[in-house]
Amino acid sequence: MSTGVVTAARVTHGSGSVDQLAAASPDGQSSAVEELLAVPDVEEAYVLSTCNRVEAYVVGPDHAVGRAALEEFFAGVADEAVVVTDHDESLRHLMRVAAGLESVILGEDQIIGQVRTAYEDSRDAGGIGSMLEAGVTKAIHVGERARTETAINEGVVSLGSAATRRAAEEIALEDATALVVGAGEMGQLAARSLAAADVAEVVIANRTVAHADHLVDDLEADTDAEAAPLEALDSVASRADVVVTATGSEEPVLEPRHLEGPSEQVVVDLGQPRDVAPAADDLSSVRVFDLDDLESITAETRDKRTDAAREVEAIVDREFDLLTEQYKRARADEAIAAMYEAAERMKDREVETALSHLEEPSEQHREVLESMADSLINQLLAAPTKSLREAAAEDDWSTIHTALQLFDPEFGENDGPIAPPSIAPNTGSGEASIGATDDD
């Protein structure tokens, strides 16, 4: 188990604007992890990047190292949009994220899959060590419990369905023509939600038409749907009553010229960065909504899930305590392992010395001596082993520190804190922001 501490920083829908989220977004999660690992003294790294949040977690010998690495990572974002947290709050926050407590739509299901994907990407990039292995997998476990043991995900559970609800507040969706731009996960959720709302037709436009075709095939059998390339937006966008965009493109894919149709249109932009050029909102026949405009839908869902959220908070509290205990046991086991390794080295040396005094030592002699030595070691170290485990449970880290100094020849005064980071000294407390608090 690493003796480092976790430090995290994030830009989310609650702390920053859509444009600030875009500025924070890395090219990819794996490459972002590699970037963080290249910083001296950063031992582990995990990056979660979605349309609503960019979060980075690092493990280093102290919080000063972590904060410096994360400050550089978010250098392109205004200070007031970045929230920085120390060890305990970082791990607890990640659990809340996986459980859906921090999402735009309380309890939405998409986030837990994104947390898993980020874990796989970070692991592939070499960013997951013993500290984050325990922390991230615990967060995933919390997310699974939240959805199987509570009603946190009942009702509107994705931004795709929220987009449909928002559009339905503006126009009648039954018999409408809907256009979904983007066939990724968000686009899939939006297309399925629109189809379930009984629109007359769903057109899915995507850069790779094969992906759009696959989504068309995946929709309900009685849904009139077709795929189109992005180049066809000139013809398909103007005849759509509802447009939902979710491409992840770096530049807007929908321009005012695409929307100059004869009738009124509702456009919901789920892209991050924005998929719809700002000038489109100036068209008199077009109403454009972005992620910030879904707040009324999310607030309604949040009210309905208040009781379930309290249940999930209790799960988070319990699982966080278990994670802390897991870290404690691992630290105690380090000292115990060092103690037994030192005893094993001594045993090997003394057995060889004893054998050297025999005229013709046999394999049987060796077995007898080693058996006796193993018995002595086990009896002598049984009490210290019990004491070290009790010391960890009681947060008596001076005892464990002394044990490591005695038995681990490579352990020195400069090895960093050996207490679990939850109680080790740090450079600050809880959650801090360079200029704002994440109150999402």
From TrEMBL:
Name of the gene: hemA
UniProt-listed InterPro entries: 4pyrrol_synth_GluRdtase, 4pyrrol_synth_GluRdtase_dimer, 4pyrrol_synth_GluRdtase_N, GluRdtase_CS, GluRdtase_dimer_dom_sf, GluRdtase_N_sf, NAD(P)-bd_dom_sf, Shikm_DH/Glu-tRNA_Rdtase
SUPFAM superfamilies in alphabetical order: Glutamyl tRNA-reductase catalytic, N-terminal domain (SSF69742), Glutamyl tRNA-reductase dimerization domain (SSF69075), NAD(P)-binding Rossmann-fold domains (SSF51735)
Domain Glutamyl-tRNA reductase N-terminal residue range list: 22-150
Gene Ontology MF: a single term: glutamyl-tRNA reductase activity
Pfam families: GlutR_dimer (PF00745), GlutR_N (PF05201), Shikimate_DH (PF01488)
Binding site for substrate: 50-53, 103, 108-110, 114
Function: Catalyzes the NADPH-dependent reduction of glutamyl-tRNA(Glu) to glutamate 1-semialdehyde (GSA).
Source species taxonomy: Archaea, Methanobacteriati, Methanobacteriota, Stenosarchaea group, Halobacteria
Species of origin: Natrinema pellirubrum (strain DSM 15624 / CIP 106293 / JCM 10476 / NCIMB 786 / 157)
Domain notes: Possesses an unusual extended V-shaped dimeric structure with each monomer consisting of three distinct domains arranged along a curved 'spinal' alpha-helix. The N-terminal catalytic domain specifically recognizes the glutamate moiety of the substrate. The second domain is the NADPH-binding domain, and the third C-terminal domain is responsible for dimerization.
Catalytic activity: (S)-4-amino-5-oxopentanoate + tRNA(Glu) + NADP(+) = L-glutamyl-tRNA(Glu) + NADPH + H(+)
Tetrapyrrole biosynthesis glutamyl-tRNA reductase dimerisation domain sequence ranges: 311-408
Superkingdom of source: Archaea
Positions of the Quinate/shikimate 5-dehydrogenase/glutamyl-tRNA reductase domain: 172-297
Residues covered by region (Disordered): 408-440
Subunit and partners: Homodimer.
Miscellaneous remark of the record: During catalysis, the active site Cys acts as a nucleophile attacking the alpha-carbonyl group of tRNA-bound glutamate with the formation of a thioester intermediate between enzyme and glutamate, and the concomitant release of tRNA(Glu). The thioester intermediate is finally reduced by direct hydride transfer from NADPH, to form the product GSA.
Record-annotated active site: 51 (nucleophile)
Family: Belongs to the glutamyl-tRNA reductase family.
Gene Ontology annotations of biological process type: protoporphyrinogen IX biosynthetic process from glutamate
Protein's pathway: Porphyrin-containing compound metabolism; protoporphyrin-IX biosynthesis; 5-aminolevulinate from L-glutamyl-tRNA(Glu): step 1/2
Site keyed Important for activity: positions: 93
Full protein name: Glutamyl-tRNA reductase
Transmembrane segments: none
Enzyme Commission number, as recorded: 1.2.1.70
Amino-acid positions noted as binding NADP(+) in the UniProt annotation, renumbered to this chain: 182-187
Keywords from the named record: NADP, Oxidoreductase, Porphyrin biosynthesis
